[in-house]
Predict the structure.
Amino acid sequence: MRTFRDRTTVLAAATTAALALTLTACGDDGTGTRSEGPATSDSATVAASAAESGKTGDDAAESGTTGSTGGGTGTARAAGTTKSSDGSGTTGGTSDKASAPKASTPLCTAKGLTITAERQDGPPYTHLTLSAKNTSGTGCEMKEYPHIHFLDNARGIVPPVAKSKPEAPVILEPGQSAHVAVRMSEGGRKESTETVKEFTVTLKANGGGMAVVRSPASEGLSVNPQKWATGYWTTELRNGADDF
């Protein structure tokens, strides 16, 4: 019986010592190092495989190997590619920058134009054709209609005729001209008119600029503020649209 008690005492003491060691290792707050068994992570396997094959990290990247880095996943890019700002890659060392848009056509200015007037054929000479030739040496755009002052500014500009407005932009190459038809009067015998020997043309829609145009006739032009009208700039006069 004594032998049994001695063995029981030894077993109890061994159990108490083992429990004390376990509590000491874990700590009172549950923290501490615990044995989780042998390591079986994928990173260790990848490292072992790389070591066995004799490849370094750079060699693995060049061969297209995907590995784990700092808890995230990074994919190696093939040689000769560049990385854009959005993370996508382009081959052949080319960039993702879009090609720059072409510069728009500049506006024609009075300085780069020669503006002349010509009376249309046949009496009673109620209409004239206004022409603007591009002498700037570069292409330019003519917008809308000329602001014509036949008389003093208080009389206002010659109003435009809406039906003569072209659908497409009017682009003048060097040496090319734009034209407008201008009605000065109706040519009636009892019509009240005034005579002008020169008048001004302002390119209001083209950012300003004014030209002084002389009358194509030595006796001047007969104009009626109640009847005058002008068309829009076009590269050629059109039947119907410019008849008014």
User: Anything to note?
Assistant: Residues 164 and 240 are 8 Å apart (CA to CA). The radius of gyration is 46 Å. The longest strand covers residues 127-134. Residues 2-26 form the longest helix (25 residues).
